[in-house]
Specification:
- This protein is α/β, with parallel strands linked by helices and about 400 residues long.
- Helices cover about 30% and strands about 20% of the residues.
- The structure holds pyridoxal-5'-phosphate.
Length: about 400
């Protein structure tokens, strides 16, 4: 991480804490806290950029899993429809009245199909990413059993090496043709998500990754169009490449609203709006302080959170963050703020967050954070042989 940016964030977190001191001392920590004005400013920057680039933002709910924030995002021009990552999230969104939902991920598990059926039954427009015949088969069965049209986008591997078929492969057009020819399926277009441009500090490097993604998506789109197949939607994108041309019609931006320590350090024009309030619970040594925000409150895979000046993180455990004191020593009982290093999995650890703005505080439920496995006697029918791979 560039040191000066981290230093800026350390000062930011200290000043947000100072401005909201009274509120912090009323919280049961560890507790997520979000700042409304910064959220609105992040949303404004994204919306204006999208309008300028002629790309629609389809916000990704997986970043914060909070329907109230999603509605804020959707209130801006150029922001339409929602994205999510699982069938259960889609079901929850549809139940809350969101009526245009993209699942930007493959849905294959038998137990997940009922959730797709439930979404389709609400009348919401549902589109799902596929990269296999089995995936097309799942959507076909959902469409058949609900008698509702379901959209698909064929997922292209644009270099991220996760799901997706190769851009110029036979597999791509065979899959697209199968989807196009299947009753109840609307072939919407293609999807290409890559995470490899996300944390690049150099704009030059970000543009290079975006150009590479664009060339792969162009290749895929022209291969399908040459065969007379529709490519109305080209969906993908991420906060890291939000202002780079990837040839998209819609961008599934997630993190830009709340940001995080890692993204916040690369110099994008979005400012961290999410913090974790933590209490100093012990001073076991004169040069150490223990905060009550361990990795049950802050997801650790991108490392330690960003701390205010005067404290350096040393070790994480379940309920504790041990810090070295390098500045004014904190007292036991002091409440401070830290910036989570990685947003999505941190949100996934909490049920609520406190939003403060313009002198008021609101408690927001992280209501899309549903998970679970439900054993069913019989999910909807297995797919017919046409959708199975022969090998
Ligand atoms: C398929 C897909 N689209 C979009 C995003 C959003 O990325 P970001 O949070 O960087 O905006 C992600 C994040 O992991 C993703 O997996």
């Amino acid at each position: 991480m560039p040191r000066d940016r981290v230093q800026d964030l350390r000062e930011l977190v200290a000043s947000v804490a100072a401005d909201n001191r009274d509120l912090l001392y009323r919280l049961q920590t560890p507790c997520l806290v979000a700042e409304g004005e910064t959220i609105d400013e992040n949303c404004r920057v994204a919306s204006e950029t999208a309008l300028r680039l002629g790309v629609r933002i389809r916000p990704h709910a997986k970043a914060h899993k909070c329907s109230a924030l999603l509605r804020r995002q959707l209130s801006l021009p150029g922001v339409e429809g929602v994205t999510c990552a699982t069938a259960l999230e889609a079901q929850t969104l549809a139940g809350l009245g969101f009526d245009d939902i993209l699942i930007a991920n493959e849905v294959i598990a038998r137990g997940s199909r009922d959730a797709l059926v439930a979404v389709a039954q609400t009348g919401a427009e549902l589109t799902v990413a596929v990269d296999s015949r089995q995936g097309v088969g799942v959507i076909a069965r959902v469409a058949e059993s609900t008698r509702r049209e379901v959209g698909v986008v064929v997922d292209i591997n644009v270099g991220g090496g996760r799901c997706g078929v190769a851009p110029a492969s036979d597999e791509l057009w065979e899959l697209a043709e199968l989807a196009f020819a299947t009753d109840g399926i609307r072939l919407e277009g293609i999807m290409g998500y890559t995470g490899q441009g996300n944390y690049l500090a150099s704009r030059h490097e970000r543009l290079r990754v975006a150009a590479d993604v664009k060339s792969r998506l162009d290749l895929a789109a022209s291969a399908l169009r040459r065969r007379g197949l529709p490519v109305k939607t080209i969906t993908g994108g991420s906060t890291g490449l939000f202002d780079c041309d990837q040839g998209l019609t819609e961008a599934q931006l997630g993190s830009y609203v709340l940001m995080e320590g890692r993204y916040g350090s690369v110099g994008l024009p979005f400012v961290p709006a999410l913090f974790c309030a933590a209490t100093v619970i012990s001073r076991p040594r004169s040069d150490h302080a223990i905060l009550d925000c361990g990795w049950k409150a802050l997801s650790p895979e991108f490392g330690f959170p960003i701390l205010p000046p005067g404290l350096d993180p040393v070790a994480f455990s379940d309920e504790h963050l041990r810090c070295r004191v390098t500045g004014t020593p904190p007292q036991v009982g002091d409440v401070l703020l830290v910036i989570p290093a990685h947003l999505d999995p941190t949100m996934n650890l909490h049920d609520r967050m406190v939003l403060f703005e313009a002198g008021r505080t609101l408690e927001l439920t992280i209501d899309l954070r549903r998970r679970g496995s439900v054993l069913r006697e019989e999910a909807i029918d297995p797919e017919p042989a046409i959708y199975r791979f022969d090998h």
